[in-house]
Design brief:
This protein is of the alpha/beta class and 241 residues long. It contains 8 helices and 7 strands, in the order αααβαβαββαβααββ.
Length: 241
Amino acid sequence: MSAAAPASLVRAASAYYRPAGRFALHFARGKLGGDPFYATVLGKALLSEGCRLLDLGCGQGLLAAWLLAAHAHHAAAQGWPHAWPPPPLLGSYTGVEVNPQEVRRARTAFALDAGIPLQIVHGDIRDVDYGAPDAIVILDVLHYLDRAAQQQVLQRVRRALAPQGRLVMRVGDASAGFGCALSRAVDGTVALLRRRRWIRLQCRPVRDWVELLERLGFAVRRRPLKGRTPFVNVLLTAQAR
């Protein structure tokens, strides 16, 4: 397991959201400080220096804020964990988000020069142009799509990535019993609040996700994510062959 993220880094990354309002700021603090993905992406060097990153379902752009703040934090020698490698400076960041409120928060947060080419696209991940990224991140998004659309998105991901390109994908494990049921209930409630309708989530056992990715031409590695919640999430890192 990666070391916990420094509180100073959480504060620095969250500070991007001050212009976007109190909700955006406090959500960023809670998510960046409590979700183990963010420590893992840095502690395990899941993204490479200079990569062109596509973040599908980016929300308010937390991953961009996290990586930008990490680079500045490390450069200033502000208590970087000894076990972590230096953070990457991205070549570019493109976030795609369907929720217009999240898009507004992200665009407000990054209205000033971020130091890298950065854009937030308002669109559906099933339809937008993926470009030619070196890495694609999909966190807790695909279960909002039906199974046919899940496969279509992953097919598009594989076509967009060059050989040795990387997909980083977090999914719930439908075979994990109570933890998965709880996660479904929470995600369904969030979708109801955001979209004003109940969405039937389409979850799969993690072995099914791995088999699908392997059929599409990825070499897949599983990484359990153990945080302070009872949710059962698995991080899949998939290398295009």
